[in-house]
Amino acid sequence: MTRIGWILPIVSIILGISAVQLVHAQNIRCCEDYCYSRDHDRSQSKHFATKTSYEVIHGSSSSREHIVPNCIPSKFWLLSRHGTRLPGKKDIELLPQALNNLRNSILDNYDNRRTAPDIGRMCADDLDLLRSWRWDRNVSVEYESFLTDQGWSDLKLLARREKDRFYEVFNGPYDKQRYLFRHTKAQRTEASFKAFVEGLFGDAAYNFINADPEPSDDTLLKPYDFCPAYDANKDKNKQPDSELNKFLRSPMYLQTLSDISTRLGFRYNLSTDQIEAMWDICRYEQAWHLQQYSPWCSVFTKSQVNVLEYKEDLKYYYQNSYGYERSADLACYAVADMMKHLGRADGQQVIAYFTHESEIQIFLAALGALKDRIALRADNYYAMQNRNFRSSELTPFASNVAVVRYQCADPVEPVKVIFFLNEKALMFDWCRVGLCNWSEVVRRYERFTKGDCAKMYCGGSGASSSTLHWTAAMGVVLAIGGTFLAQQRL
């Protein structure tokens, strides 16, 4: 046999062995090593989309952005999301069993089947967290979507910080001529209003302070609930060609599902619903108990959380923000209300509304705030790593937009305004380091003040102005009282 003749079989054997080793290496590796229990930073908790805790997002209480030389705050207008809440009815009914099954399977994969990867596996401390996890029996359908203890604190502490910042506006006892409060019919927004009032005026102050009743067609705080065009757009975003669904079919997302499944010891890919169950309970539990470790957050690495966050951002971007061309029009009544109150020196000094994430998102779109130069898409995840539209930062639990009117010594522009998002000044390119001349604010948003919101809102297809006036006259008497879960310990 020639030298070439005996070398070729050896080369073939070596290549075959290498191929087997490569396949084996791929089978035992999923992702980066990560141990949640040993991570005291847990920076991914700032990327939990709309279920992010407000405490890890809001601006510093020591910030001096609100201090304007030669200017005194004279009015405060607030649009706030409710604080941290419990899951909705469907989740409470489905999650306990689904999560119990997943936990048992994961532990079995590690303890008995030995199918966990060699590289990227969960650490022993994280597995112990899962072993000790139990569904909290206080989280029952009876209290679905209720404000939690932490949610109460979110709003109470927000009120205290704002009172400290703008003491010129909040100075003195409660006076119904100076304060206007309103919330939607949901328990979580009503309780948020009460917590905010308690933060301003002391314990149980809500017992003698009432909010204005909500009309049946509330286009100020829930305009999306009465707009057929908005519903049609939501249906459109469920179609296969939507950016969200294209992302769910993308190699990036499918690889993330595969990596999560492999990390948990599964030899097959978990379903999107199973991933969502773990993702949701992770975010809820971490928002309920800020100083504790949620066992379910340990199943994800930081890079996987970023992918899951982007998936949710795609949903909200095309449902409530710049990806939906009529989003700004939906906020017509809210912007007009802001302009009406801030445009006059008299009237109420503090106006505070308590609503939901969708309202905050469409309102920010109406302001033209934090708009990215390019749209979020299924195919530009990496290009959008530093995007402005990040629902975790825009609309966490208790997210809010506060607009403050200042009376200044400037003889040319005596009235100025600062827009704050989650207690941080919004930087518009037409303002000076966040401080905006009122005349320019009027010019920028004159279509909301000079136009007819009844026609602009929802393309004229939503609730009519006559209906709104009638329902406002009739009013809706809200039963205020009872014991909220917010005042119980979960």
Task: Walk me through what this model shows.
- There is one protein chain.
- The chain has 490 residues and is of the alpha/beta class.
- It has a domain at 49-60 and 79-399: Rossmann fold.
- It contains 19 helices and 7 strands.
- It has helices at residues 3-27, 89-113, 124-132, 149-165, 167-170, 187-201, 228-236, 243-248, 251-263, 272-288, 302-320, 327-330, 332-342, 357-367, 391-394, 438-444, 446-450, 453-456, 465-474; strands spanning 71-81, 179-183, 350-355, 400-408, 415-421, 424-425, 435-437.
- Strands 1, 2, 3, 4, 5, 6 and 7 form a 7-stranded mixed β-sheet that branches.
- Strand 4 (400-408) and strand 5 (415-421) form a beta hairpin.
- The protein is globular.
- The termini are far apart.
- Residues 1-25 form the signal peptide.
- It is an enzyme of class 3 (hydrolase).
- Disulfide bonds join 71-408, 282-297, 431-436.
- It holds the Pfam family His_Phos_2.
- This is Multiple inositol polyphosphate phosphatase 1.
Give a summary of the structure in a few sentences.
This protein has 490 residues and is α/β, with parallel strands linked by helices. The chain contains 19 helices and 7 strands.
Topology:
Elements: H1 3-27, E1 71-81, H2 89-113, H3 124-132, H4 149-165, H5 167-170, E2 179-183, H6 187-201, H7 228-236, H8 243-248, H9 251-263, H10 272-288, H11 302-320, H12 327-330, H13 332-342, E3 350-355, H14 357-367, H15 391-394, E4 400-408, E5 415-421, E6 424-425, E7 435-437, H16 438-444, H17 446-450, H18 453-456, H19 465-474
Parallel strand pairs: 1-3, 2-3
Antiparallel strand pairs: 1-4, 4-5, 5-6, 5-7
